[in-house]
Amino acid sequence: MINSSSEPWVGPEAEIESVDRLRSLENLLKLTDRIKSLEAELTQVSTTRALTPTEQLDAEQQLIAMRASPPWRVGRVVTMPLRIMRRMLRRNSHR
Amino acid sequence: MSATPTLTIWVDGIGRSQADVERVLRESIRQAAPGTEFVCLIADDERYGEDWPVDAAVLVVPLPEDDAASLNRLLSQTRSDWVVWIDASANLAPGALGHVETAVARFDIDLLYGNARLPGSQRTHRPAFSPIRLRSQDYFGDVRGFRVEALRQSGGFGAGNAGAHPLDLSLRLGADAARVLRIPEILSVSAMAIRPSTEQHRKVVAQFLGSRGIVAEVTVVAEALQVTYPLVSAPLVSIIIPTRGSSARIRGAESVLVVDAVRGILERSTYPSLEIVVVADDETPQSVINALVCLAGDSLRLVRWSEDFNFSAKMNRGAIFSRGAYLVLLNDDVDLITPGWIEAMLGLAKQPGVGLVGSLLFFEDGTVQHGGHVYSASWAGHIAFGWSADRDDDLGSMGVDREVSGVTAACAMIRADTFWQLGGFSLDYAGNYNDVDLSLKVRGSGRSVIWTPHARLYHYESKSRIATVEPSELVTLRAHWGTWLLSDPYWPSSPQQP
Known about the structure:
The complex is a heterodimer.
Chain A: H1 19-45, H2 53-67, H3 70-78, H4 80-94
Chain B: E1 7-12, H1 18-31, E2 37-43, E3 58-63, H2 68-77, E4 82-87, E5 91-92, H3 96-106, E6 111-117, H4 131-134, E7 143-147, H5 148-153, H6 165-173, E8 180-189, H7 199-211, E9 217-221, E10 224-228, E11 237-243, E12 247-250, E13 253-256, H8 257-268, E14 274-281, H9 286-296, E15 300-305, H10 311-320, E16 326-330, E17 334-336, H11 341-349, E18 354-362, E19 368-370, E20 373-376, E21 379-382, E22 402-404, E23 411-415, H12 416-421, H13 434-444, E24 448-459, H14 461-464, H15 471-481
Parallel strand pairs in B: 1-2, 1-4, 2-3, 6-8, 11-14, 11-16, 14-15, 18-24
Antiparallel strand pairs in B: 4-7, 5-8, 6-7, 9-10, 12-13, 16-23, 17-24, 18-19, 18-23, 20-21, 22-24
Protein backbone atom coordinates (compact mmCIF):
# COMPACT_ATOMS: atom_id res chain seq x y z
CA MET A 1 0.00 0.00 0.00
CA ILE A 2 1.90 3.01 -1.26
CA ASN A 3 0.88 6.60 -0.84
CA SER A 4 -0.80 7.62 -4.05
CA SER A 5 -0.61 11.30 -3.23
CA SER A 6 2.35 13.10 -4.78
CA GLU A 7 3.22 14.83 -1.50
CA PRO A 8 6.37 13.43 0.13
CA TRP A 9 6.11 12.54 3.79
CA VAL A 10 6.90 15.02 6.51
CA GLY A 11 8.48 14.14 9.84
CA PRO A 12 11.36 14.82 12.22
CA GLU A 13 14.26 14.05 9.89
CA ALA A 14 17.72 13.27 11.18
CA GLU A 15 19.97 16.21 10.60
CA ILE A 16 23.31 16.60 8.89
CA GLU A 17 25.41 19.75 8.59
CA SER A 18 24.65 20.36 4.92
CA VAL A 19 23.71 18.68 1.68
CA ASP A 20 27.32 19.08 0.59
CA ARG A 21 28.47 17.18 3.64
CA LEU A 22 26.02 14.37 2.80
CA ARG A 23 27.25 14.21 -0.81
CA SER A 24 30.85 14.26 0.34
CA LEU A 25 30.30 11.29 2.69
CA GLU A 26 28.40 9.39 0.00
CA ASN A 27 31.27 10.04 -2.38
CA LEU A 28 33.77 8.86 0.19
CA LEU A 29 31.95 5.54 0.41
CA LYS A 30 31.66 5.34 -3.36
CA LEU A 31 35.35 6.03 -3.96
CA THR A 32 36.46 3.62 -1.26
CA ASP A 33 34.24 0.98 -2.81
CA ARG A 34 35.75 1.72 -6.24
CA ILE A 35 39.23 1.12 -4.84
CA LYS A 36 38.11 -2.15 -3.22
CA SER A 37 36.48 -3.26 -6.48
CA LEU A 38 39.61 -2.50 -8.47
CA GLU A 39 41.73 -4.36 -5.94
CA ALA A 40 39.39 -7.33 -6.25
CA GLU A 41 39.57 -7.25 -10.04
CA LEU A 42 43.35 -7.01 -9.90
CA THR A 43 43.45 -10.07 -7.67
CA GLN A 44 41.44 -11.96 -10.28
CA VAL A 45 44.12 -11.48 -12.93
CA SER A 46 47.09 -11.55 -10.58
CA THR A 47 49.25 -14.63 -10.42
CA THR A 48 50.66 -13.58 -7.11
CA ARG A 49 47.65 -14.21 -4.92
CA ALA A 50 48.92 -16.68 -2.38
CA LEU A 51 46.56 -19.60 -2.04
CA THR A 52 46.41 -21.36 1.29
CA PRO A 53 47.31 -25.07 1.24
CA THR A 54 43.61 -25.92 1.57
CA GLU A 55 42.77 -23.71 -1.42
CA GLN A 56 45.55 -25.28 -3.49
CA LEU A 57 44.30 -28.79 -2.82
CA ASP A 58 40.72 -27.73 -3.52
CA ALA A 59 41.74 -26.22 -6.84
CA GLU A 60 43.59 -29.41 -7.78
CA GLN A 61 40.55 -31.49 -6.89
CA GLN A 62 38.40 -29.31 -9.10
CA LEU A 63 40.82 -29.76 -11.99
CA ILE A 64 40.77 -33.52 -11.52
CA ALA A 65 36.96 -33.48 -11.38
CA MET A 66 36.78 -31.32 -14.50
CA ARG A 67 39.11 -33.61 -16.45
CA ALA A 68 37.00 -36.58 -15.44
CA SER A 69 33.76 -34.93 -16.49
CA PRO A 70 31.82 -36.04 -19.62
CA PRO A 71 31.96 -32.59 -21.30
CA TRP A 72 35.76 -32.52 -20.96
CA ARG A 73 36.09 -36.06 -22.33
CA VAL A 74 33.78 -35.34 -25.24
CA GLY A 75 35.77 -32.19 -25.95
CA ARG A 76 39.00 -34.17 -25.98
CA VAL A 77 37.53 -36.64 -28.48
CA VAL A 78 36.17 -33.88 -30.71
CA THR A 79 39.48 -32.00 -30.77
CA MET A 80 41.60 -35.13 -31.15
CA PRO A 81 42.08 -34.84 -34.96
CA LEU A 82 43.21 -31.25 -34.57
CA ARG A 83 45.65 -32.15 -31.82
CA ILE A 84 47.08 -35.03 -33.88
CA MET A 85 47.43 -32.76 -36.90
CA ARG A 86 49.19 -30.10 -34.83
CA ARG A 87 51.59 -32.67 -33.43
CA MET A 88 52.39 -33.94 -36.93
CA LEU A 89 52.96 -30.42 -38.23
CA ARG A 90 55.29 -29.69 -35.34
CA ARG A 91 57.21 -32.90 -35.92
CA ASN A 92 57.57 -32.11 -39.62
CA SER A 93 58.74 -28.57 -38.97
CA HIS A 94 61.46 -29.87 -36.67
CA ARG A 95 62.89 -32.20 -39.30
CA MET B 1 61.00 -28.97 7.60
CA SER B 2 62.72 -32.19 6.53
CA ALA B 3 62.18 -33.41 2.96
CA THR B 4 60.26 -36.48 4.00
CA PRO B 5 58.55 -35.94 7.33
CA THR B 6 58.01 -39.07 9.38
CA LEU B 7 54.82 -40.06 11.14
CA THR B 8 53.96 -41.60 14.43
CA ILE B 9 50.49 -43.13 14.55
CA TRP B 10 48.68 -42.75 17.86
CA VAL B 11 45.59 -44.88 18.05
CA ASP B 12 43.24 -43.65 20.76
CA GLY B 13 41.77 -46.84 22.17
CA ILE B 14 40.35 -45.38 25.39
CA GLY B 15 36.83 -46.69 25.77
CA ARG B 16 37.12 -48.73 22.57
CA SER B 17 37.19 -52.49 22.22
CA GLN B 18 40.40 -54.43 21.61
CA ALA B 19 38.94 -55.57 18.30
CA ASP B 20 38.48 -51.95 17.17
CA VAL B 21 42.01 -51.05 18.20
CA GLU B 22 43.46 -54.07 16.41
CA ARG B 23 41.54 -53.27 13.24
CA VAL B 24 42.84 -49.69 13.12
CA LEU B 25 46.40 -50.72 13.95
CA ARG B 26 46.49 -53.44 11.31
CA GLU B 27 45.27 -51.00 8.65
CA SER B 28 47.74 -48.36 9.81
CA ILE B 29 50.64 -50.80 9.68
CA ARG B 30 49.53 -51.90 6.21
CA GLN B 31 49.44 -48.31 4.90
CA ALA B 32 52.37 -46.73 6.70
CA ALA B 33 55.78 -46.05 5.21
CA PRO B 34 58.81 -47.84 6.67
CA GLY B 35 60.07 -46.15 9.82
CA THR B 36 56.63 -45.15 11.07
CA GLU B 37 56.13 -45.42 14.83
CA PHE B 38 52.95 -46.89 16.31
CA VAL B 39 51.49 -46.10 19.69
CA CYS B 40 48.33 -47.56 21.12
CA LEU B 41 46.73 -45.58 23.95
CA ILE B 42 44.53 -47.60 26.28
CA ALA B 43 42.91 -47.08 29.66
CA ASP B 44 45.01 -47.85 32.71
CA ASP B 45 42.77 -50.71 33.81
CA GLU B 46 42.72 -52.22 30.34
CA ARG B 47 45.02 -55.18 29.73
CA TYR B 48 45.67 -56.62 26.30
CA GLY B 49 46.53 -60.23 26.85
CA GLU B 50 49.13 -62.47 25.32
CA ASP B 51 46.85 -62.88 22.36
CA TRP B 52 47.74 -59.32 21.34
CA PRO B 53 48.68 -60.19 17.82
CA VAL B 54 49.12 -56.94 16.02
CA ASP B 55 52.82 -56.21 15.94
CA ALA B 56 55.63 -56.29 18.41
CA ALA B 57 56.67 -52.81 17.31
CA VAL B 58 53.46 -51.25 18.58
CA LEU B 59 53.99 -49.47 21.86
CA VAL B 60 50.97 -50.03 24.07
CA VAL B 61 50.63 -47.25 26.63
CA PRO B 62 48.15 -47.57 29.50
CA LEU B 63 47.07 -44.10 30.53
CA PRO B 64 45.95 -42.98 33.98
CA GLU B 65 42.79 -40.91 34.32
CA ASP B 66 44.79 -37.70 34.08
CA ASP B 67 46.89 -38.67 31.12
CA ALA B 68 48.67 -35.43 30.20
CA ALA B 69 52.01 -36.29 31.83
CA SER B 70 52.15 -39.68 30.11
CA LEU B 71 51.23 -38.19 26.75
CA ASN B 72 53.79 -35.43 27.12
CA ARG B 73 56.43 -38.01 27.95
CA LEU B 74 55.53 -39.87 24.76
CA LEU B 75 55.65 -36.61 22.85
CA SER B 76 59.12 -35.81 24.14
CA GLN B 77 60.36 -39.27 23.16
CA THR B 78 59.03 -39.46 19.63
CA ARG B 79 61.53 -39.10 16.80
CA SER B 80 58.82 -38.45 14.24
CA ASP B 81 57.83 -35.12 12.74
CA TRP B 82 54.08 -35.66 12.91
CA VAL B 83 51.60 -37.30 15.26
CA VAL B 84 48.63 -38.77 13.42
CA TRP B 85 45.86 -39.20 15.98
CA ILE B 86 43.24 -41.82 15.09
CA ASP B 87 40.12 -42.52 17.11
CA ALA B 88 39.83 -46.32 17.21
CA SER B 89 36.07 -46.19 16.77
CA ALA B 90 36.71 -45.30 13.14
CA ASN B 91 38.94 -46.94 10.61
CA LEU B 92 41.50 -45.58 8.24
CA ALA B 93 40.21 -45.12 4.71
CA PRO B 94 42.23 -46.79 1.95
CA GLY B 95 45.22 -44.62 1.10
CA ALA B 96 44.63 -42.25 4.02
CA LEU B 97 48.17 -42.28 5.36
CA GLY B 98 49.49 -41.77 1.84
CA HIS B 99 47.40 -38.60 1.57
CA VAL B 100 48.72 -37.43 4.93
CA GLU B 101 52.34 -38.18 4.02
CA THR B 102 52.02 -36.33 0.73
CA ALA B 103 50.40 -33.32 2.39
CA VAL B 104 52.91 -32.92 5.19
CA ALA B 105 55.82 -33.32 2.77
CA ARG B 106 54.38 -30.65 0.49
CA PHE B 107 53.07 -27.95 2.83
CA ASP B 108 54.54 -26.09 5.77
CA ILE B 109 51.63 -26.61 8.16
CA ASP B 110 50.97 -27.52 11.80
CA LEU B 111 47.57 -29.21 11.74
CA LEU B 112 45.52 -31.24 9.28
CA TYR B 113 42.21 -33.04 9.00
CA GLY B 114 40.12 -34.56 6.23
CA ASN B 115 36.83 -36.05 5.16
CA ALA B 116 35.15 -39.30 6.18
CA ARG B 117 33.20 -42.03 4.48
CA LEU B 118 29.98 -42.75 6.37
CA PRO B 119 27.66 -45.76 6.32
CA GLY B 120 25.85 -46.03 3.02
CA SER B 121 28.87 -44.66 1.14
CA GLN B 122 27.85 -41.13 2.03
CA ARG B 123 30.80 -38.81 2.52
CA THR B 124 31.29 -35.83 4.72
CA HIS B 125 32.33 -32.52 3.26
CA ARG B 126 34.12 -30.87 6.10
CA PRO B 127 34.54 -27.11 5.77
CA ALA B 128 37.86 -25.34 5.41
CA PHE B 129 39.37 -24.32 8.72
CA SER B 130 36.70 -22.51 10.73
CA PRO B 131 38.06 -21.33 14.09
CA ILE B 132 34.75 -19.91 15.33
CA ARG B 133 32.99 -23.15 14.43
CA LEU B 134 35.64 -25.16 16.23
CA ARG B 135 34.57 -23.43 19.44
CA SER B 136 31.09 -24.95 19.00
CA GLN B 137 31.97 -28.42 17.78
CA ASP B 138 35.00 -30.59 17.14
CA TYR B 139 34.22 -30.98 13.44
CA PHE B 140 37.68 -32.30 12.44
CA GLY B 141 36.67 -35.97 12.60
CA ASP B 142 38.44 -39.14 13.65
CA VAL B 143 41.79 -38.67 11.91
CA ARG B 144 43.91 -35.57 12.30
CA GLY B 145 47.59 -34.72 12.25
CA PHE B 146 49.67 -32.51 14.53
CA ARG B 147 53.21 -31.36 13.76
CA VAL B 148 55.30 -32.54 16.68
CA GLU B 149 57.42 -29.42 16.97
CA ALA B 150 54.34 -27.20 17.00
CA LEU B 151 52.80 -29.43 19.66
CA ARG B 152 55.87 -29.14 21.85
CA GLN B 153 56.04 -25.38 21.38
CA SER B 154 52.36 -24.99 22.27
CA GLY B 155 52.97 -26.69 25.62
CA GLY B 156 51.86 -30.19 24.67
CA PHE B 157 48.95 -31.95 26.28
CA GLY B 158 47.00 -30.03 28.91
CA ALA B 159 46.34 -31.51 32.32
CA GLY B 160 42.75 -32.52 32.98
CA ASN B 161 41.80 -32.64 29.31
CA ALA B 162 41.48 -36.42 28.97
CA GLY B 163 38.84 -37.23 26.39
CA ALA B 164 39.20 -33.90 24.62
CA HIS B 165 42.91 -33.65 23.77
CA PRO B 166 42.36 -33.56 19.99
CA LEU B 167 40.01 -30.58 20.31
CA ASP B 168 42.28 -28.82 22.78
CA LEU B 169 45.31 -29.22 20.51
CA SER B 170 43.34 -28.23 17.41
CA LEU B 171 42.14 -25.02 19.08
CA ARG B 172 45.65 -24.10 20.14
CA LEU B 173 47.45 -25.05 16.93
CA GLY B 174 44.71 -23.38 14.88
CA ALA B 175 45.77 -19.96 16.15
CA ASP B 176 47.45 -19.47 12.77
CA ALA B 177 44.70 -20.37 10.32
CA ALA B 178 47.06 -20.39 7.35
CA ARG B 179 48.92 -23.35 8.88
CA VAL B 180 45.85 -25.57 9.03
CA LEU B 181 45.09 -27.88 6.14
CA ARG B 182 41.83 -29.57 5.27
CA ILE B 183 42.67 -32.48 3.00
CA PRO B 184 39.82 -32.93 0.50
CA GLU B 185 40.31 -36.72 0.41
CA ILE B 186 38.63 -39.26 2.68
CA LEU B 187 40.83 -40.15 5.64
CA SER B 188 38.49 -42.26 7.75
CA VAL B 189 35.58 -44.62 7.56
CA SER B 190 33.40 -43.53 10.45
CA ALA B 191 30.06 -44.41 11.94
CA MET B 192 29.18 -40.74 12.28
CA ALA B 193 30.47 -37.51 10.74
CA ILE B 194 30.90 -35.81 14.03
CA ARG B 195 30.95 -36.93 17.65
CA PRO B 196 28.64 -35.30 20.18
CA SER B 197 30.23 -32.65 22.33
CA THR B 198 30.84 -33.57 25.94
CA GLU B 199 31.53 -31.84 29.22
CA GLN B 200 35.25 -32.33 28.50
CA HIS B 201 34.88 -30.49 25.19
CA ARG B 202 33.03 -27.72 26.99
CA LYS B 203 35.83 -27.45 29.48
CA VAL B 204 38.65 -27.22 26.93
CA VAL B 205 36.81 -24.59 24.87
CA ALA B 206 36.14 -22.49 27.99
CA GLN B 207 39.78 -22.89 29.00
CA PHE B 208 41.01 -21.97 25.53
CA LEU B 209 38.86 -18.83 25.36
CA GLY B 210 39.88 -17.85 28.88
CA SER B 211 43.56 -18.21 27.98
CA ARG B 212 43.02 -15.69 25.20
CA GLY B 213 41.22 -13.22 27.40
CA ILE B 214 37.87 -13.84 25.71
CA VAL B 215 34.95 -13.56 28.11
CA ALA B 216 32.57 -16.38 27.19
CA GLU B 217 30.10 -18.84 28.63
CA VAL B 218 30.20 -22.30 27.12
CA THR B 219 27.37 -24.79 27.56
CA VAL B 220 26.58 -28.17 26.07
CA VAL B 221 23.34 -27.87 24.09
CA ALA B 222 22.06 -30.96 22.31
CA GLU B 223 25.17 -32.41 20.64
CA ALA B 224 27.15 -29.19 20.25
CA LEU B 225 28.47 -26.38 22.36
CA GLN B 226 26.84 -23.00 22.60
CA VAL B 227 29.28 -20.19 23.18
CA THR B 228 27.82 -16.91 24.36
CA TYR B 229 29.91 -13.82 24.78
CA PRO B 230 28.55 -11.74 27.65
CA LEU B 231 28.85 -8.06 26.89
CA VAL B 232 30.83 -6.03 29.36
CA SER B 233 29.53 -2.84 27.77
CA ALA B 234 26.56 -2.06 25.55
CA PRO B 235 27.77 0.00 22.60
CA LEU B 236 25.12 1.81 20.60
CA VAL B 237 23.83 -0.38 17.77
CA SER B 238 22.20 1.33 14.79
CA ILE B 239 19.61 -0.71 12.93
CA ILE B 240 19.33 0.56 9.36
CA ILE B 241 16.03 -0.24 7.65
CA PRO B 242 15.33 0.93 4.10
CA THR B 243 11.63 1.12 3.34
CA ARG B 244 8.92 2.49 1.14
CA GLY B 245 6.24 1.73 3.68
CA SER B 246 4.79 -1.32 1.96
CA SER B 247 2.06 -3.48 3.44
CA ALA B 248 1.42 -7.19 3.04
CA ARG B 249 -0.75 -9.93 4.45
CA ILE B 250 1.21 -11.87 7.08
CA ARG B 251 -0.48 -14.86 8.67
CA GLY B 252 -3.80 -13.70 7.38
CA ALA B 253 -3.60 -10.17 8.75
CA GLU B 254 -2.65 -6.94 7.05
CA SER B 255 0.79 -5.76 8.15
CA VAL B 256 2.58 -2.49 7.54
CA LEU B 257 5.93 -4.20 7.32
CA VAL B 258 8.32 -1.54 8.61
CA VAL B 259 6.01 -0.54 11.44
CA ASP B 260 5.58 -4.12 12.62
CA ALA B 261 9.32 -4.78 12.26
CA VAL B 262 10.19 -1.75 14.39
CA ARG B 263 7.49 -2.59 16.92
CA GLY B 264 8.87 -6.11 17.27
CA ILE B 265 12.40 -4.83 17.74
CA LEU B 266 11.46 -2.27 20.36
CA GLU B 267 9.04 -4.46 22.27
CA ARG B 268 10.97 -7.72 22.25
CA SER B 269 14.70 -7.03 21.88
CA THR B 270 16.57 -7.34 25.14
CA TYR B 271 19.53 -5.20 24.04
CA PRO B 272 19.44 -1.85 25.84
CA SER B 273 21.22 0.51 23.46
CA LEU B 274 19.56 0.75 20.04
CA GLU B 275 18.74 3.39 17.50
CA ILE B 276 16.50 2.73 14.51
CA VAL B 277 17.58 4.45 11.29
CA VAL B 278 14.73 4.28 8.79
CA VAL B 279 15.58 5.36 5.26
CA ALA B 280 12.17 6.08 3.79
CA ASP B 281 11.28 6.76 0.18
CA ASP B 282 9.41 10.00 -0.47
CA GLU B 283 6.29 8.04 -1.32
CA THR B 284 6.16 6.31 2.07
CA PRO B 285 2.65 6.87 3.42
CA GLN B 286 2.41 9.65 5.97
CA SER B 287 0.53 7.27 8.27
CA VAL B 288 3.58 4.98 8.32
CA ILE B 289 5.91 7.82 9.23
CA ASN B 290 3.52 8.94 11.97
CA ALA B 291 3.32 5.41 13.36
CA LEU B 292 7.12 5.09 13.40
CA VAL B 293 7.56 8.39 15.21
CA CYS B 294 4.94 7.38 17.74
CA LEU B 295 6.49 3.96 18.27
CA ALA B 296 10.18 4.74 18.40
CA GLY B 297 10.31 8.34 19.65
CA ASP B 298 13.87 9.43 20.34
CA SER B 299 15.26 6.08 19.20
CA LEU B 300 14.22 6.86 15.64
CA ARG B 301 16.34 8.60 13.03
CA LEU B 302 14.29 9.31 9.95
CA VAL B 303 16.22 9.69 6.72
CA ARG B 304 14.65 10.75 3.44
CA TRP B 305 15.24 9.00 0.11
CA SER B 306 14.08 10.98 -2.92
CA GLU B 307 16.13 9.32 -5.64
CA ASP B 308 15.63 6.30 -7.89
CA PHE B 309 15.60 2.89 -6.24
CA ASN B 310 19.04 1.66 -5.25
CA PHE B 311 19.16 -0.58 -2.20
CA SER B 312 22.89 -0.08 -1.77
CA ALA B 313 22.68 3.70 -1.89
CA LYS B 314 19.82 3.70 0.61
CA MET B 315 21.80 1.55 3.04
CA ASN B 316 24.86 3.76 2.63
CA ARG B 317 22.79 6.82 3.39
CA GLY B 318 21.46 5.09 6.48
CA ALA B 319 25.03 4.38 7.58
CA ILE B 320 25.92 8.05 7.19
CA PHE B 321 23.16 9.01 9.60
CA SER B 322 23.96 6.21 12.07
CA ARG B 323 25.73 7.01 15.31
CA GLY B 324 26.28 3.44 16.51
CA ALA B 325 29.62 1.66 16.72
CA TYR B 326 27.87 -1.34 15.13
CA LEU B 327 25.38 -1.38 12.28
CA VAL B 328 22.60 -3.89 11.75
CA LEU B 329 21.57 -4.03 8.11
CA LEU B 330 17.93 -5.03 8.14
CA ASN B 331 15.09 -5.42 5.66
CA ASP B 332 11.72 -3.99 6.59
CA ASP B 333 9.94 -7.33 6.13
CA VAL B 334 11.39 -9.14 9.15
CA ASP B 335 10.11 -10.07 12.56
CA LEU B 336 12.45 -11.20 15.30
CA ILE B 337 12.05 -14.56 17.00
CA THR B 338 14.90 -14.51 19.53
CA PRO B 339 14.81 -11.49 21.85
CA GLY B 340 18.59 -11.78 22.35
CA TRP B 341 19.37 -11.52 18.62
CA ILE B 342 21.49 -8.38 18.96
CA GLU B 343 23.52 -9.83 21.84
CA ALA B 344 24.14 -13.05 19.87
CA MET B 345 25.35 -11.18 16.80
CA LEU B 346 27.28 -8.53 18.72
CA GLY B 347 29.15 -11.12 20.78
CA LEU B 348 30.44 -12.65 17.55
CA ALA B 349 31.02 -9.31 15.80
CA LYS B 350 33.34 -8.32 18.65
CA GLN B 351 35.56 -11.38 18.19
CA PRO B 352 38.99 -10.65 16.70
CA GLY B 353 39.04 -11.10 12.95
CA VAL B 354 35.27 -11.23 12.52
CA GLY B 355 33.94 -8.73 10.00
CA LEU B 356 30.29 -9.54 9.37
CA VAL B 357 27.69 -11.62 11.20
CA GLY B 358 24.48 -13.05 9.74
CA SER B 359 21.47 -14.77 11.22
CA LEU B 360 19.08 -17.67 10.72
CA LEU B 361 16.07 -16.52 8.74
CA PHE B 362 12.77 -18.33 8.27
CA PHE B 363 9.99 -17.88 5.79
CA GLU B 364 6.52 -17.20 7.10
CA ASP B 365 5.70 -20.93 6.86
CA GLY B 366 8.61 -21.81 9.15
CA THR B 367 10.96 -23.20 6.52
CA VAL B 368 14.49 -21.90 6.36
CA GLN B 369 15.21 -18.95 4.09
CA HIS B 370 18.84 -18.32 5.00
CA GLY B 371 21.50 -20.44 6.66
CA GLY B 372 24.36 -18.38 5.25
CA HIS B 373 25.41 -17.88 1.65
CA VAL B 374 26.97 -20.53 -0.56
CA TYR B 375 29.02 -19.48 -3.58
CA SER B 376 29.65 -22.21 -6.10
CA ALA B 377 29.88 -22.65 -9.87
CA SER B 378 29.86 -18.85 -10.32
CA TRP B 379 26.55 -18.54 -8.53
CA ALA B 380 25.36 -17.36 -5.13
CA GLY B 381 22.58 -19.00 -3.14
CA HIS B 382 21.33 -19.62 0.37
CA ILE B 383 22.41 -22.55 2.52
CA ALA B 384 19.46 -24.66 3.70
CA PHE B 385 16.99 -22.73 1.55
CA GLY B 386 13.54 -24.29 1.98
CA TRP B 387 14.66 -26.81 4.62
CA SER B 388 12.24 -27.63 7.41
CA ALA B 389 13.25 -26.05 10.71
CA ASP B 390 14.38 -29.37 12.20
CA ARG B 391 16.46 -30.51 9.23
CA ASP B 392 20.24 -30.54 9.45
CA ASP B 393 23.23 -31.92 7.58
CA ASP B 394 25.47 -34.71 8.84
CA LEU B 395 27.85 -32.19 10.44
CA GLY B 396 25.11 -30.50 12.47
CA SER B 397 25.80 -27.22 10.66
CA MET B 398 22.44 -25.65 11.41
CA GLY B 399 23.03 -25.65 15.15
CA VAL B 400 26.43 -23.98 15.43
CA ASP B 401 28.09 -20.62 14.85
CA ARG B 402 30.21 -21.07 11.78
CA GLU B 403 32.28 -19.38 9.10
CA VAL B 404 30.46 -18.88 5.81
CA SER B 405 31.33 -17.34 2.48
CA GLY B 406 28.74 -14.64 2.95
CA VAL B 407 25.47 -13.65 4.57
CA THR B 408 22.35 -11.88 3.43
CA ALA B 409 21.93 -8.19 4.16
CA ALA B 410 18.33 -8.91 5.11
CA CYS B 411 19.82 -9.16 8.60
CA ALA B 412 23.52 -8.71 9.22
CA MET B 413 25.75 -6.90 11.69
CA ILE B 414 29.01 -5.12 10.88
CA ARG B 415 31.22 -2.72 12.79
CA ALA B 416 30.62 0.82 11.56
CA ASP B 417 34.34 1.46 11.03
CA THR B 418 34.65 -1.76 8.98
CA PHE B 419 31.70 -0.63 6.84
CA TRP B 420 33.46 2.66 6.13
CA GLN B 421 36.84 1.05 5.50
CA LEU B 422 35.27 -1.19 2.87
CA GLY B 423 33.28 1.56 1.15
CA GLY B 424 29.92 0.27 2.34
CA PHE B 425 27.61 -1.23 -0.25
CA SER B 426 28.67 -0.96 -3.86
CA LEU B 427 26.36 1.16 -5.99
CA ASP B 428 27.05 -1.24 -8.88
CA TYR B 429 24.46 -3.54 -7.31
CA ALA B 430 21.21 -1.60 -7.08
CA GLY B 431 18.97 -4.54 -6.31
CA ASN B 432 20.87 -7.84 -6.12
CA TYR B 433 24.19 -9.25 -4.98
CA ASN B 434 25.02 -6.16 -2.92
CA ASP B 435 25.33 -8.44 0.12
CA VAL B 436 27.45 -10.93 -1.81
CA ASP B 437 29.79 -8.14 -2.80
CA LEU B 438 29.93 -6.77 0.76
CA SER B 439 30.61 -10.24 2.15
CA LEU B 440 33.44 -10.77 -0.31
CA LYS B 441 34.89 -7.36 0.46
CA VAL B 442 34.88 -8.36 4.12
CA ARG B 443 36.66 -11.63 3.35
CA GLY B 444 39.00 -9.95 0.90
CA SER B 445 40.10 -7.68 3.74
CA GLY B 446 41.17 -10.73 5.76
CA ARG B 447 38.15 -10.75 8.07
CA SER B 448 35.69 -13.59 8.38
CA VAL B 449 31.95 -13.79 7.85
CA ILE B 450 30.07 -15.68 10.55
CA TRP B 451 26.54 -17.06 10.57
CA THR B 452 24.79 -17.83 13.84
CA PRO B 453 21.67 -19.88 14.54
CA HIS B 454 21.25 -18.05 17.84
CA ALA B 455 19.84 -14.92 16.17
CA ARG B 456 16.61 -16.02 14.51
CA LEU B 457 14.09 -13.93 12.60
CA TYR B 458 11.25 -14.38 10.17
CA HIS B 459 11.91 -12.88 6.78
CA TYR B 460 8.75 -12.39 4.77
CA GLU B 461 10.77 -12.02 1.59
CA SER B 462 8.32 -13.48 -0.86
CA LYS B 463 5.71 -11.07 0.46
CA SER B 464 7.64 -7.97 -0.33
CA ARG B 465 10.09 -8.61 -3.08
CA ILE B 466 9.97 -9.83 -6.65
CA ALA B 467 13.49 -11.06 -7.31
CA THR B 468 14.50 -9.68 -10.66
CA VAL B 469 18.18 -10.00 -11.37
CA GLU B 470 19.79 -7.48 -13.66
CA PRO B 471 22.23 -9.38 -15.89
CA SER B 472 24.69 -6.51 -15.52
CA GLU B 473 24.84 -7.09 -11.76
CA LEU B 474 25.85 -10.71 -12.24
CA VAL B 475 28.42 -9.76 -14.87
CA THR B 476 29.93 -7.17 -12.52
CA LEU B 477 29.95 -9.61 -9.62
CA ARG B 478 31.79 -12.22 -11.67
CA ALA B 479 34.28 -9.64 -12.94
CA HIS B 480 35.09 -8.55 -9.38
CA TRP B 481 34.98 -11.87 -7.60
CA GLY B 482 35.03 -14.62 -10.25
CA THR B 483 37.49 -16.96 -8.55
CA TRP B 484 35.81 -16.53 -5.15
CA LEU B 485 32.57 -17.83 -6.64
CA LEU B 486 33.91 -21.07 -8.11
CA SER B 487 33.71 -23.31 -5.07
CA ASP B 488 32.69 -22.73 -1.51
CA PRO B 489 35.31 -23.49 1.16
CA TYR B 490 32.78 -23.54 3.98
CA TRP B 491 29.96 -25.46 2.29
CA PRO B 492 31.97 -27.74 0.06
CA SER B 493 29.31 -30.25 -0.97
CA SER B 494 30.15 -29.75 -4.59
CA PRO B 495 28.53 -32.31 -6.88
CA GLN B 496 31.83 -32.66 -8.73
CA GLN B 497 33.41 -34.25 -5.70
CA PRO B 498 33.27 -38.04 -5.58
